[in-house]
Design a protein that fits this description.
Helix content is about 65%, strand content about 10%. By secondary structure, it is mainly alpha-helical. It has a three-stranded antiparallel sheet with strand order 1-3-2. Helix 1 crosses helix 5.
Length: about 190
Amino acid sequence: MSSIRLYILDALVVEGPMHGHQLRLLAEKEHVQEWTDISVGALYGALKRMAAEGLIEEVRAEREGAYPERQVYAITDAGRVSLAVEKRDALREIVVRPDPFDLALSRLDRDRLDDLGDLLSARISHLKALLEDTVAHNTSIDKYLTFTEKIVVRHKTERLRAEVAWHEQLFTQLPEIIADESARKEH
């Protein structure tokens, strides 16, 4: 599943044929970098890859003034099929990526267990600051978002709130974690 592929294909269906710069301007106008994992600068490379895969095709080249010639792309039949699959998969699949923190927590340095409380406190503080920044940022971009985009943006906020709650619960379990790790250290 590729967010950038879904975005480009859908934009070409909704907006019609476009060149990379038009697509970039649309992405900036829609603030996609604020609420998706799409980097606006990555659109150009994705266009080339998708053209090579036959999902989009060059329909003409345009030149405006002194600007370089730009290739205008349209979606192909194969691209329409791919878009339908991408949308279906994106709506069905749940993406929860493993956090390296979990691996590190399960393999603690038993000689440094005294540091765990400070490390976890710092992590909780960082998560809370990230949550606060995210809420402030979402408030600042709210006027640019559609109703559905506002819901999507709130999804990240709720995930961060859940992370804070989980880490705070973990912090209350530090005595048991340290006792368990210390007991294992002795064996």
